[in-house]
Amino acid sequence: MSNTLDHAYAVILAGGGGTRLWPKSRKKTPKQFLKLTGKKTMMQVATERIVKLLPWERVIVVTNKMYKNEVAEQLPEVPEQNIICEPDKKDTALAMLTGALYAKSIDPEAVVVNSASDHVVTDEKEFVRVMKAAIKEAAENPVLVTVGITPTFPATGFGYIKVGDDLKKVGSGLSLFKVNSFTEKPKESTARAFISTGKYFWNANMYVWKAETLLESFAEHMPTMHDVVKPLLSAKGKAFHDALPKIYEESEAISIDYAISEKATNLVLIPGDFGWDDIGEWKVVYDLGKKDLAGNVIIGDTDQVHTLAIGSNNNLVHVNGRLVALVGINDMIVVDTDEIVMIAPKNRSQDVKKLVERLKEENKKEYL
Questions:
Q1: In the chain, which end has fewer C-beta atoms inside a 10 angstrom radius, N or C?
Q2: What pTM does this model have?
Q3: CATH superfamily name and code, 2-278
Q4: Can you give the pLDDT at residue 300?
């Protein structure tokens, strides 16, 4: 195991948005840079979890160029040259391939653990166990490994992965499955039917692969993108970063699932039962938060959280340095920022995205 871990690298994807967490998550400060679950930002928590597997110098962060300084400030332990700045948003396929090729430029035997910068894991010990097994499998066999999350309810906001045969046991008794198919965000009745079979897992975009195996998959399934990134195969250090603008200009925008996962015949799955969640809306922030005696969750960017609540229960309040007072308010979300106050029923937190869409329609970019 130690030999395979010696070649393990992490690619942290930190270039996304998070419109359902508006108005805190905005273009200038997307959700990965926010403190939503404690005193550290989502990205800091996600990266500190990864370094339980590998050292800081093998952490690679792929982010948008506008967030480079934010990443460097929040993760000073990550070498500056390991911060890859995307010139443009081209979805996860190019981001993951670029991260893998950067790891390969350092170590030809690199095995890459892909991790989002804004996911929650409550059982880090189990997370480490599963990832060690996935790293070993990817290092020793020409497979692409996805870690599927065992569903706990019929979620309609996640994709689902259907598995086939139980191929073997890996690690300390974990099952390895052949992947059969993907389904994007089904309706609730379909999700319920999926879960009842015991053959479906949530797709968390949590992939582990040898960089060389991923490159071979792009050669087979995305030959155009494979050709576009060829200059990166011989580039190292500054030359690697300097080559990115032209490559991003010439590449298409496509997700890793559409580009590779749904086509690959060597995709396998290891179940991950480590308390995973994607904080995609304010209700999830409430569910994960520390509640007071009235069931209220009070959070903010600083330790100074001022609230006054009378006859108000089961609310989420995100404060911004000034007093927020509630009277007779129940099951609501209240988010206070410098420029915006957003109030919504907790059970409609997914509809916050509609506010963002309306602002886009009205071209009110200063609020996005």
A1: N
A2: 0.91
A3: Spore Coat Polysaccharide Biosynthesis Protein SpsA; Chain A (3.90.550.10)
A4: 87
